[in-house]
Amino acid sequence: KPASAASDVYKRQMYALKLAKKNGCTTILNPAPATNLSEDCFENVDFFTPNETEAGFFINQSIESEKDCQSAAKVFLDKGIKNILITLGEKGCFFKNNEEEFLIPAKKLSVPVVDTTGAGDAFNGGLAYALSKNKSIKECLNIANQVAGLSTLKLGAGNSMPLLTDLK
Question: Does the active-site annotation cover 46?
Answer without folding.
Answer: no
